[in-house]
Each structure stands twice: as structure tokens, then as C-alpha cells.
């Protein structure tokens, strides 16, 4: 099964062994039967993209929970055996949902249930210039009395940021703030 794993850049160092990463049990996203049933007009690529987008949103929740994490979303794509995955898990990452996430994200939610070491297919990461938009979104979404409009405007700025593609062998070269 192809998994889209939300992560943070502080989980990786330049010493990451080529394209391998010891993946501990954690929430992830995948093209699940529920996602397929809900997006009947999408082709396979569109369905995979939807799952990937949900992982990118969950990466923000991880960044918010890790004070040392650079403000850059990271999605790591791996192929794992179906037996390593449980479909249909709780919302969000570590119980936290991101303001930009919606009920649709639950449809792609899965959980990696046992540690595996698999070859990384690829990784997508925000360029360092996106850190300002991500920081503004995190500040707006956690501010006391924050207006929904302010959070939505900050989310729109994050959505304008493109995540850059890196081959799995390039994990040590991911750009960092």
C-alpha cells in the first residue's frame, strides 16, 4: 500500500541512510476504499493527490506540536505491505486537527501499526520561503479569539505554497529554513 506520511524536517538529518527511514507506528494517509467511494469523479491520480493533500495538512499539526520543527511541511511517500496498515483511524495527528482539514481527510486516514523500514519513494517539502506563511497560519490558528476569517486567510496563503519533490535517495538534501 502506498502511504503518504506526514512528518517534520527535524525527524531527518543529512545522515539519513540513502532512501531508507525507520518508520515507527504513526498516522498516515492512503487511497482507501472510503476515499474512493466519496470521490467518484476522480481518477486514480486525483485520488492519490487527495490523500497526499491530507498528509500535507497533518504535517502542519505535527509542526505545531514540535517547537523545534522547521516551519516546512513534509510528506514522505513509502510503499508498505497491507498488513502494516490499519484503515479507518481517528482524526488528525496526535489528536489535533488542522484548521484547513475537513471531514474528507478522515476518509484517507490510516495508521501504520508496526515499525517498518521501507525504501522511501519520494518526499515533498515546502521551500524555505514558505516558512513565513506557515508560521503565520500556526499563529493565527492558535491565537486566542482568532477570527475564522483570519485563520482561513492564513490557510489560503499556505495553500499557495508549493511543496517541492525529492527522490527518496535525496532525503539528506531536503531544503531547510
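Sequence proposed for the structure above (177 residues):
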Amino acid at each position: 500500500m502506498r502511504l503518504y506520511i506526514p512528518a517534520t524536517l527535524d525527524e531527518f538529518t543529512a545522515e539519513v541512510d540513502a532512501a531508507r527511514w525507520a518508520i515507527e507506528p504513526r498516522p498516515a494517509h492512503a487511497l482507501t476504499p472510503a476515499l474512493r467511494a466519496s470521490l467518484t469523479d476522480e481518477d486514480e491520480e486525483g485520488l492519490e493527490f487527495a490523500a497526499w493533500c491530507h498528509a500535507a495538512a497533518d504535517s502542519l499539526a505535527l509542526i505545531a506540536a514540535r517547537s523545534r520543527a522547521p516551519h516546512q511541511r513534509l510528506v514522505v511517500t513509502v510503499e508498505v505491505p497491507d498488513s502494516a496498515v490499519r484503515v479507518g483511524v481517528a482524526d488528525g495527528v496526535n489528536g489535533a486537527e488542522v484548521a484547513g482539514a475537513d471531514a474528507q481527510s478522515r476518509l484517507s486516514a490510516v495508521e501504520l501499526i508496526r515499525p517498518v523500514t521501507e525504501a522511501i519513494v519520494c518526499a515533498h517539502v515546502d521551500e524555505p520561503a514558505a516558512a513565513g506563511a506557515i508560521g503565520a497560519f500556526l499563529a493565527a490558528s492558535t491565537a486566542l479569539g482568532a477570527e475564522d476569517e483570519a485563520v482561513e486567510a492564513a490557510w489560503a496563503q499556505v495553500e499557495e505554497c508549493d511543496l517541492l519533490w525529492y527522490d527518496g535517495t535525496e532525503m539528506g538534501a531536503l531544503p531547510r529554513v
